[in-house]
Amino acid sequence: IACLVASCGSTDVNEVEIAVSDTPSKEEMYEAKKEKLQELEAAVNADTDYSERKLRQQLVATYATFTNQYNKDEMAAEYLFRAGKLANGIGKPRRAIDFLMNAHDGYPLFNKRTEAAFLVGFIYENVLNDREMAQTAYEKVIELYPESSWAGDAQASIQLLYLTDSEKIKRFK
After folding, report:
1. How far apart are CA 172 and CA 157, in angstroms?
2. To the nearest 10°, the Cα dihedral for 61, 67, 68, 70?
């Protein structure tokens, strides 16, 4: 500040102090970003017109920015999970997988880890049509969470993975 005052010559020290104190604190920036996320979530949930996709893209980007800046925040894993589901919904399956895997791998206490792992397999199978990667993801769910309902779903998905549509229909009948 002293250098700034000296270089400006006529600048009043009080003006410099005011300018410095007007800079938002880390806590204020954090709160502003959380508020922005809440506004976007409300807009996405309320909007049903053509701009919905754009709002969803903006929300995914905002989730990503927030979790990059505040990866230790208690909501970071949840925001990654939500970003993954939204990214898949707007046609960005590979980005969705990245978000879901980061939520799973980066947050060992996250209560939706099992679902995140299962969704990775689901996206590989149903969106990307990559059966090998789907099987690998489903096997990971079974291995890591053998007692979960998601493990049962993963096992059922593996059994149907290589069947044709007509074979699946016969099996369900």
Report:
1. 13
2. 140
Question: pTM for the complete prediction?
Answer: 0.79
Q: Tell me which residue has tokens 């506004």.
A: 39
DSSP track, 58-97:
HHHHHHHHHHHH-TTSTTHHHHHHHHHHHHHHTT-HHHHH
Amino acid at 94: R
Cβ proximity of 97 and 84 under 8 Å: yes
Pairwise CA distance, residues 124 & 19, whole Å: 52
pLDDT digits (tens, 9 = 90+) for 109-157: 999 999 999 999 999 999 999 999 999 999 999 999 999 999 999 999 9
